[in-house]
Structures are given as structure tokens and as C-alpha cells.
Amino acid sequence: MTIPVLLAGHGALPSGAADAAEFVVGPQSRLLVCELGPAESPDTYGERLADLVGDAPEVLVLADLPGGTPANAAKLFAARRTGVRIVTGLNLPMLLEVLVRDGDVDELAAIAQAAGKGGVLTEPVLSR
After folding, report:
1. Which residues form a coiled coil (predicted)?
2. Active-site amino acid positions
């Protein structure tokens, strides 16, 4: 079973992450995007998030900021449903690794967390 991956974040960040990921690995039918608009209430955002997920038995939510409205809405949603896991700190290495791997939602959450941390590096400057 392919587990949906919901990108939750402020503004266009989720769409940008989805576009970048699909640029690298091709179209991904499992990606769901939920952008928080500037004037949107947390309740309205949470309702849209729930509508996007629908009745999927499992979903991995990759949210931009811990403690932000998108992550908090996902936490409220997860409190009402089993099979929802949330990883914050959305970045492209995290997303790409999740999209090319298989596993249950717990395995994918662990993969996302490790890849997200591992993808943050200070690159050496090349000298001429």
C-alpha cells in the first residue's frame, strides 16, 4: 500500500517542495499539499487538511515548523485518527527520501526524520 504524504506549511512552501521533488523524481500521485493562507483561521486550515486526507488509513504529514499552525492542525487531526504521523522541519532531502522508499507510516516517519537531519550540512567552499 502506498501511504499518502501530506505537505503542510505556511504560504507556498508545500507547493514549492512538491514541485522540487517532482522535478527530481517525477510525478508523485501520493503527494498532498495543504498551504496555510495569510488570513486563514486554524480551524479552516484543519478542516481542509482533514478533507485532503479523506479516509486514508495511514498518512505521513511533513510540516514546516514545529508549533506552527500547520503542524498544530495536523496534531489535532492525528488525535482523532490512528495511522497519522507528523514530522516537522520539512526539507527536500526528507521529502525525496520518503518518496523513493517503501514502508509503513512509522518506518517512513523515521526515514523522514533521519533524512531531514542528514540533509542539513555546511558545505565546504571550493578554492581555485
Report:
1. none
2. 10
